[in-house]
């Protein structure tokens, strides 16, 4: 049984004067522990699809099942990490990372300790009493990842979480996030415009065509790349070959 099942998904945005179809007949499956990237030109509906999977938007048609249950009944099993960290500036880092557990009513001494250990694994053991404004952008994103993992979600949604960071910090965080998710055997979906990021971090890359968004092609990332940390994968010859292949497919979509 697949972990996440998307079947015949369709979504149209309606206004008083128009109807715009963002997604058409999306069908795909994600296995537990897989890291999937959604890639495609602007306007192909990647973020709309992510929002539907997260249960934030009801699709016009089709279904999304998580472990064979409707997504609306599984929202506590989904974690969301965005481009902005959305840390509350008036709360300490410790208060921020425990917030989800408090909201869910699941904060226990054991879970508090587990969350503190997560902070240590991210190299942030000394920042619990600090406030977000005292941290760099990369540190804040690490805190945001801890806050997301603290609630022990089964599925992580990553919506361009590194795009606002400088390139060096972005590469470091790619390695950190990839290693962390593998260690916890988490299933993740990444929305990105960055071909290199998709190749370096993913098991599979779903390329979407625009207007309306459809699955155009699926790329399997070779084992020799999947078994490497993202930074090392970027230096492999197979990485360059796959990059060029996907780049040409994207160019063909733009020409259409």
TrEMBL record:
Domain ABC transporter span(s) in chain numbering: 4-235
SUPFAM superfamilies in the cross-refs: P-loop containing nucleoside triphosphate hydrolases
Listed Pfam families: ABC_tran
Molecular function in Gene Ontology: ATP binding
InterPro entries documented for this protein: AAA+_ATPase, ABC_transporter-like_ATP-bd, ABC_transporter-like_CS, ABC_transporter_ATP-bind, P-loop_NTPase
Record carries keyword DNA repair: no
Keyword ATP-binding: yes
Keywords: ATP-binding, Nucleotide-binding, Transport
Signal peptide segment: none
Name of this chain's protein: ABC transporter ATP-binding protein
Native source species: Mesobacillus maritimus
